[in-house]
Amino acid sequence: MTLQEFFMENPEVALAFSGGVDSSYLLYEAKKHCKRVRAYTARTAFVPAFELEEAEKLAKELGVPMTFLDLDLLGVPGAAANGPDRCYHCKTAVFTAIKEKASEDGFPLVIDGTNASDDASDRPGMKALQELGVRSPLRECGITKAQVRKASREAGLTNWDKPAYACLATRIPTGTPITKDALERVERGEKALFDMGYADFRLRLMGSCARLQFNSAQLERAFAERESIVTALDGLFEGVTLDLKPRISSPEA
């Protein structure tokens, strides 16, 4: 099945839209082939402001209407407890809200941007999607991450090479309860590093300290600029450590 064939069979869709490469390309294809499409984005403490801003900008560029849903994920016990199944509880809450709003708006189907490269056995959130009847056209059509990036570039989408970005909750060790303060400190810390020109890195909370992980292309620079980095993060963490092992990019961490 091709995406065009999928959308011919499902001409009215509500897309759970993160503004990442996968959901952006899917929104682009849906706009081309669907009778009606709308993007739905959850606004939560787990998502940094810049991600929401980029998602809104992309939806406008593609000319697709967009709805923000304000959700309190810290009020979801299974999410705030941050156990091994945190993602399942988060996805259940987010997609339940999207399904309810999409149904009110007259959409019979909710879709998401999971692609064929994503390992279902490694993603507890996929269980929630299956239980709620959310479909993943990219995955169903066998379209991989590499193919999404190539097609996005050919389509002229501005974020075709955007690094994968997992939610802020992934920066907090599993088993450590998630708090608003912790999420805000991570968001502020990562913004400071983005403002210094770094990309595709992670700032992990380790108690009251921050552990920084950079890919091999940026690690040497980060070491050389360690004093500037510590200054940029001053006041947010009691200590800052640099992981000397290069980070390998992963969409889920």
Task: Describe the fold and architecture.
The protein is α/β, with parallel strands linked by helices and 253 residues long. The chain folds into two domains: 3-155, HUPs (Rossmann fold, 3-Layer(aba) Sandwich), CATH 3.40.50.620; 168-242, no CATH class. Helices cover 44% and strands 13% of the residues. It has eleven helices and seven strands. The chain has helices spanning 3-9, 21-33, 49-62, 77-80, 86-104, 125-132, 137-140, 145-155, 180-195, 216-224, 226-232, and strands at residues 12-16, 36-43, 66-70, 110-111, 202-206, 209-213, 239-242. The protein has a four-stranded parallel sheet with strand order 3-2-1-4, with helices on both faces. β5 and β6 (209-213) form a beta hairpin. α2 (21-33) runs parallel beside α3 (49-62), α2 (21-33) packs across α8 and α5 runs parallel beside α6. The longest helix is centred in the middle third of the chain and has 19 residues, at 86-104. It is globular. The model has no long low-confidence stretch (mean pLDDT 93).
Secondary structure tally: strands: 7
The share of residues in helices is 40-55%
Instruction: Compute the number of helices.
Output: 11
For the largest sheet, list the strands in their spatial order. Answer: 3-2-1-4
The CATH C-level name of the largest domain is Alpha Beta
Question: What does this entry show, briefly?
Answer:
By secondary structure, the protein is of the alpha/beta class.
